[in-house]
Amino acid sequence: PTICQNCSLGCNIIAGERYGTIRRITSRYNEKVNGYFICDRGRFGYEYVNSDLRIKEPLRRGQASGKLEEVDQATVFNYFEKLFSKKARFLGIGSPRASLEANHALRMLVGKDNFYAGVNETDHRLTLKALQIMQESPADVPSLRETEKADAVIILGEDVTNTAPMLALSLRQASRVQAMEIPQKANIPIWNENAVKEIVQDEHGPFFVLTPMETKLDDIATATYRHVPQNIARLAQAVTHYIDPDSPNVNDLNESEKALAEQIAAELLNAKQPLVVSGTSLQDESLLNAAANLTIALKKRAKNPWIFLTLPEANSAGLALLDEKNLNMAFEKALSEKYDAVIILENDLYRRMENDKADKFLDAFKHVIVLHYLQNASTEKANLVIPVGPFTETDGTMINNEGRAQRYFQVFHPGGSIKESWRWLGQIMAKGNLKRKRPLSNLDDFINALIEDYPQLSAVKEAAPDASFRIAGQKIPRQSHRYSGRTSMLAHINVSEPKPPEDPDTPMSFTMEGYQGPQPGAVLSRYWYPGWNSVQALNKFQIEVGGGLHDGRPGVRVLNLSAKEGMDYFRQIPAKFQTRANAWLAVPLHHIFGSEELSIHTKGVSELSPEPYILLNDAETEGLGDRVSVEINNQIMELKLHKSALWPKGAAGLPVGLPDMDVVKFPVWIKISG
User: Fold this and answer.
1) pLDDT higher than 70, residue 404
2) Do residue 248 and residue 287 come from a single domain?
3) Which of 554, 574, 599 is the last residue before a domain boundary?
4) Would the pTM of this model clear 0.90, i.e. be above it?
5) Are residue 250 and residue 133 in the same domain, yes or no?
6) What single string gives the DSSP state of each residue in 318-384?
7) Which H or E run contains 127?
8) For the chain, what is the total number of helices (H) and then of strands (E)?
9) pLDDT tens-digit map of 291-335
10) Same domain, 31 and 72
11) Are residues 113 and 128 in the same domain?
12) 310 φ, ψ to 5°?
């Protein structure tokens, strides 16, 4: 049982291993998050764990060769012992992909004043703003599955199909909520599927998509609005003013914008359960403010709105809750103060900042130490590389976009020098004799240490049973009782079966031996029941079909996200967008296949990833060829030109995260020539 790492939603999955490699990913039922399904990126984007770029042994840069050379674990510990003996000063860079336990372990090693979240200033600021809104807003924060019950939806800026794909599926279900009242009024029972389909046809409820780009949800939209982020925020604020005249007003909308704002306001007021969706992908804070303002206005009109905000990465929320210092602050600190070494945790700084800036940052340290599972631009600059496991080979906890802490577990024991990041860091701390209140030997110890420093995260402990949990005195087996053929799997290497590895961190075993009866949902690794085939047996594990699992533990919310009173409007209205002569405002675009850092290592995903391009309105492409030169902050890129009649004039769409594209800090004005 594990958690998908490809976006912030935290879908539950089961990873299947054979002969030391991951062979498939399937959905693991969770009634609060992904239900029965997962998206294609989650299902197929796991191949990086089997990549030829995997780091399986420690690497140290040789003094004579200047190249990274394989060394043993003792060399790693000796390296740190020398640094500790010289009282070296460390700076730590965390990661929104690493677990809570790993990030906190690094913070313990380097000290709280020297630990920085490994994300840029914009992403971190917007994540903190989203968490603030969710905790202070008068709106409730639904689970992903609950968003299917909304009967009116407004999306502000977020192309959810590309940034949070399973949310797009849930919103499609939500678009049918009001339409399902039609058969009820005709006295047709909902279970009569054919009759319901016949009478509903293509009817949909109120659904408004306000984004710069065309989206896959446009086909079910009541209305769409295409403009740059600041104008989307302005239109949303106009909707807010129609709902509550005491809110800030926007005076300079055109007639079509006024009519659309009035229509959206009327539909939201008419709804029983309106839902406001936004997120951080457009890197514009005004959209989050506008989403919050909408919920405040609806609450004042005696509605019970929901707000659902997507975040950049799998553990962005968890990392933001640990530290408010971002990567830009670390850059300034490294250049202004003397540090001996930087420790980078499961992160590639060349994905977080411009290449020249990353070079300058790393050059400020005599010792660059990277813990990672894949070779990347940061490991190429390292003096010491420590091999750690990806999500399939480690245990840990992550917090998704709605504040839900969920535990993920090792699928198999990788062997060799690969360990969990938190285990490496704990052993390194032991070498430095860094004092702790209690020893750090297994996952539970690291969770307890986390809670000591962050009492507000105490609920993390309840996300799954601890290592001492037993049923009838037995551990829970990872392998099914039909795994007896394991004795022949390695017969070509050794005919005697080796002793299976032990798991000191979880209530699970790496074998087929253990309790084979009903198990807690958080550690349920398969669905099997006598007389039933594979996943079709799922209903035997549910309290009712479509309901929760027996002892399901669908994660635990660590934040109080129920509706609050007293939050005031964000009163700053962004200025109306003005085009510039010979310049375009760059707007970030995301791709489900290509923008995500790790899934791109899957061959099928990389084949579907577009080559770097720039998107312009049709009317602004006259005289330009198929490829154009784009000047961004005095740097030139050659990009393929894409055109769209619906794309806003004066803006240029730039895909983020694609291979061979440097990091762009948005918003930025760019120049284009043919």
Assistant:
1) yes
2) yes
3) 554
4) yes
5) yes
6) HHHHH----HHHHHHHHHHS--SEEEEES--GGGTS-HHHHHHHHHT-SEEEEEESB--HHHHT-SE
7) helix 121-136
8) 19, 26
9) 999 999 999 998 999 999 999 999 999 999 998 899 999 999 999
10) no
11) no
12) -90, 150
